[in-house]
Write a structure and sequence with these properties.
The protein is α/β, with parallel strands linked by helices. The protein has one domain: P-loop containing nucleotide triphosphate hydrolases (Rossmann fold), CATH 3.40.50.300. It has 9 helices and 14 strands. It has helices at 44-52, 74-79, 97-105, 113-119, 124-127, 138-150, 168-185, 196-199, 219-226, and strands at 2-13, 16-28, 33-37, 59-64, 67-68, 82-85, 92-96, 131-132, 156-160, 188-192, 204-209, 212-217, 239-242, 247-250. The strands form 4 sheets. It has a 6-stranded mixed beta sheet, sandwiched between helices. Helix 7 (168-185) links the parallel strand 9 and strand 10. It starts with a strand and ends with a strand. The structure holds adenosine-5'-triphosphate. Adenosine-5'-triphosphate binds at residues 11, 13, 18, 20, 38, 40-46, 87. InterPro entries: AAA+_ATPase, ABC_AA/LPS_Transport, ABC_transporter-like_ATP-bd, ABC_transporter-like_CS, P-loop_NTPase. Keywords: ATP-binding, Nucleotide-binding, Transport. It holds the Pfam family ABC_tran. It comes from Sporotomaculum syntrophicum.
Length: 251
Amino acid sequence: MLEMTNVGVTIEGDNGSVEVLKDINLKFEEKKIYVMTGPNGSGKSSIAKTIMGIYQPTAGKIILDSTDITNMSITERARLGIGYAFQRPPLFKGMTVRDFLNYAAGPDNTIMHCDLLYDVGLCAQDYLEREINASFSGGELKRIEIASILARNLKVAIFDEPEAGIDLWSFQRLTETIANMNIKYDTTIVLISHQERIIRLADEVILVAEGRISGITTQGKILDDIQCLDTGCECRNNCIKGGEDNQCLIL
Ligand SMILES: Nc1ncnc2c1ncn2[C@@H]1O[C@H](COP(=O)(O)OP(=O)(O)OP(=O)(O)O)[C@@H](O)[C@H]1O
């Protein structure tokens, strides 16, 4: 289990300090799928980065299976089995897709490169020997990043807006793959998303607002709140139509 207790994060920048997270208390259990959702700028990615060690807590504790990881580096946390697929994946110049997946999976791995790329909707033959440079589209980069997380047998896998840039056809396969990862390896999965189809995967939905946890609820409750009206052209309550496939999004 991964547990955050009273976690706060303040970042020192050129224009003074910014308190990005305040008093975060969360428990992520094994084998469960969590979806974190909330308005833009509410702190979802910051929670993910704090779990991964990219941001260091300025208050509170983070415990993974009774090990205190609060002050551990990104590398140490990665070794313990925490993985984070970025919202905007970085480029890895000079590395081919094959090298990158091998690096992610670690030495002596037995990963099936073709299967991994298939799971994210890419054709292995077209991609494996290509260098990960600026010639890749945003959607391609995103899928390769997700494949690198699927390559690892993780305790906690965090996917930051996995749907961004992924077409509708590949999306179906991707959600099945994420759900299978959860069953096959007992991985705790944390998905950051505004999408109804992602929320449908959730055992629990975590609501984030203004750097705090504003609620923990079920997918049923959230989906009730964001269902479209029968006319199919409006969303209820505090939601609007948007996104690439014109879904209802939580404001
Ligand atoms: N390194 C940083 N320096 C300064 N401010 C930061 C930093 N990281 C995050 N913030 C601020 O903290 C707030 C939360 O950002 P975060 O990226 O966590 O939001 P989010 O909920 O993931 O948003 P989105 O849905 O738009 O991706 C924002 O106001 C952001 O500008």
